[in-house]
TrEMBL record:
Cofactor: binding details: Binds 1 potassium ion per subunit.
Keywords: Cytoplasm, GTP-binding, Hydrolase, Magnesium, Metal-binding, Nucleotide-binding, Potassium, tRNA processing
Protein name: tRNA modification GTPase MnmE
Listed GO MF terms: GTP binding; GTPase activity; identical protein binding; metal ion binding
GO CC, alphabetical: cytosol
Residues that hold GTP according to the record: 233-238, 252-258, 277-280
Binding annotation for Mg(2+): 237, 258
Lineage, top ranks: Bacteria, Pseudomonadati, Bacteroidota, Sphingobacteriia, Sphingobacteriales
Gene Ontology biological-process annotations: tRNA methylation; tRNA wobble uridine modification
EC number(s) from the headed UniProt entry: 3.6.-.-
Keyword Aminoacyl-tRNA synthetase attached: no
Length: 462
């Protein structure tokens, strides 16, 4: 169990940089004795006499034997990440030195930090609220510009400030309703019902917007899943390679994928797309067992977009229509993107005529890189990436989504109650329920189990 009392009495230590050999490693100490413990083994200066935010060169010794030359950065409470006394020791990153130094600090009174304990302390000491603490984990894990921006925005508190302001207004109303209960015999109304309805309406509109931003936020965090499908030899691999070269992105074959589906991660416009190459759908049903086809459909259902790539020289309008119909039974028409490839050997006007009545076909050549920019623009558009460029808040955390949904339900119930001749008690109860769930997001309401489940997901040293 993680501690839940603020202002911890003990001092914790952990490696803050990745384990293994490197040029430099940083060992972090935090707690009331952090500077004192480091000072016991640090030679060169008296660290306890130094100002906050200063860096000092010295040696760390064990029984007068030098273990390493280091730089020690001193932070005096409350001006540190955890708001406790802290020291960051930069040493040479050999596993031997790291192990030796951490053991020395432990011998002198520190204890090993639990996963996420530095950030937990920052939260308990009021440096961060809960959604900001979670943003720290997201920031560390972010691999693309978009996911980085999203985490940074949450870390800066944009999202929690918005919720805090709303919560405060509701608290004020709850207080007025409680007051009415005290004067129950006199039948007075302090809380203006029409105003309360307006407030609930505006809170719900913010909450619903946040709820509906989750799909995008989640996609940004984990990559937008896109199924790329089409007959063999239509140019699927060529297209993926062309996109890869375009953006110099990282290709990775995600572990755990089977031969029927191969995933490539491609960074387009700062957003990670996960391209899932499935086995053929329609045309191969006689060759591949139904199981493979069913798997392809399952992937389509789980994906945000489906690209159907085809060679117009080999695809009639009837066939294409049949494919669109079939795909439409597994995904929304809006998420299907029809792409005609090998434009270098064909004629766009002629092809357009052939597929008259079928909307939204893109004509490209993967090999000669014709209209690839149009293709990527369309992808970004279909992924609603433009929502990211405006200042709207996007949520990406399942815990936040659930709390927002529960808040919304409680507010729905509050509105329903207001239509009926019930007393203030029930109303007060429902408003409190909504306040509780809103508070869960920022950590104004928290319990040990919740903190435990959030912070143990961090690595040690964070
Ligand atoms: P996949 O089986 O769908 O992955 O198809 P490939 O990407 O392996 O491509 C099959 C063949 O089509 C290869 O010989 C490619 O060079 C060729 N090809 C791919 N894209 C184009 C294109 O835009 N124009 C032409 N002319 N050939 C292409």
């Amino acid at each position: 169990m993680l501690p839940v009392s603020p202002y911890a009495e003990d001092t914790i230590v952990a490696l803050a940089t990745p384990a293994g050999t490197g040029a430099i490693a940083v060992i972090r100490l935090s707690g009331p004795e952090a500077i004192k413990i480091c000072n016991k083994v640090f030679f060169g200066k008296d660290l306890e006499k130094q100002a906050s935010h200063t860096v000092h060169f010295g040696t760390i010794r064990e029984n007068d034997v030098i273990v390493d030359e280091v730089l020690a950065t001193v932070f005096i409470a409350p001006s540190s990440y955890t708001r406790e006394n802290s020291v960051e020791v930069s040493c040479h990153a050999s596993p031997y030195i790291i192990h030796k130094l951490i053991n020395l600090f432990i011998k002198n009174g520190a204890r090993t930090a639990k996963p996420g304990e530095f950030t937990l302390r920052a939260f308990l000491n009021g440096q961060l609220d809960l959604s900001q603490a979670e943003a720290v984990a997201d920031l560390i894990a972010s691999r693309t510009e978009a996911s980085h921006n999203m985490a940074l925005k949450q870390l800066r508190g944009g999202f929690s400030n918005e919720l805090k302001a709303l919560r405060q207004q509701l608290i004020d109303f709850a207080a007025l309703i409680e007051l009415e209960l005290d004067f129950a015999e006199e039948d007075v109304e302090f809380a203006n019902r029409p105003q309360l309805k307006v407030l609930i309406g505006s809170i719900q509109s913010v909450i619903r917007k946040l709820i509906s931003s989750f799909d995008l936020g989640n996609a940004i965090k984990n990559g937008i899943p896109v199924v790329i499908s089409g007959k063999p030899n239509v140019g699927k691999s060529t297209l993926l390679n062309a996109l890869l070269n375009e953006d110099r992105a990282i290709v990775s074959e995600i572990a755990g994928t089977t031969r029927d589906t191969i995933e490539d991660e491609i960074n387009i416009g700062g957003i990670n797309f996960r391209f899932i190459d499935t086995a053929g759908i329609r045309e191969t049903s006689d060759k591949i067992e139904a199981i493979g086809v069913e798997k392809a459909y399952e992937k389509i259902r789980q994906s945000a977009l489906v690209i159907y790539l085809f060679d117009p020289e080999e695809t009639s309008a009837e066939e294409l229509k049949a494919i669109v119909n079939e795909l439409s039974t597994h995904t929304s028409g809006d998420s299907i993107l029809l792409v005609a490839n090998k434009l270098d050997k064909g004629n766009e006007a002629e092809w357009k005529k052939r597929y008259e009545g079928i909307n939204g076909i893109l004509f490209i050549s993967a090999k000669d890189r014709i209209h690839l920019d149009l293709f990527t623009e369309t992808l970004l558009q279909k992924a609603h990436a433009d929502q990211l460029n405006n200042d709207e808040t996007v949520i990406s955390n399942v815990r936040h989504l659930e709390a927002l949904q529960k808040t919304n339900e409680a507010l729905d119930d509050t509105l329903r109650l207001m239509e009926q001749p019930f007393g203030g008690e029930l109303l007060a109860f429902e408003i409190k329920r909504a306040l509780h769930h809103l508070g869960e997001i920022t950590g104004d309401i928290s319990n040990e189990d919740l903190l435990d489940s959030i912070f143990t997901r961090f690595c040690i040293g964070k």
